[in-house]
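User: Membrane lipoprotein. Structure?
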Amino acid sequence: MQKSFTLIQTIATAGVFSAVSFWYGFMFGRESARKELGDLIDNLRRGNSVADSSPHSS
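Assistant: Predicted structure:
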């Protein structure tokens, strides 16, 4: 009986660890993608604002 309880405990611990690892990986990836897209959007806005302001200043 003790061995099956230990096996169940081991499987449960591995499952919890796997779920936590997945969650942190997902959140880190999401934050990284958000920063990358934010930088891309800022660069595009700067590029568009420079392109838009050039004809107006000419």
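The chain has one helix and no strands. Residues 50-54 have pLDDT under 50 and may be disordered.
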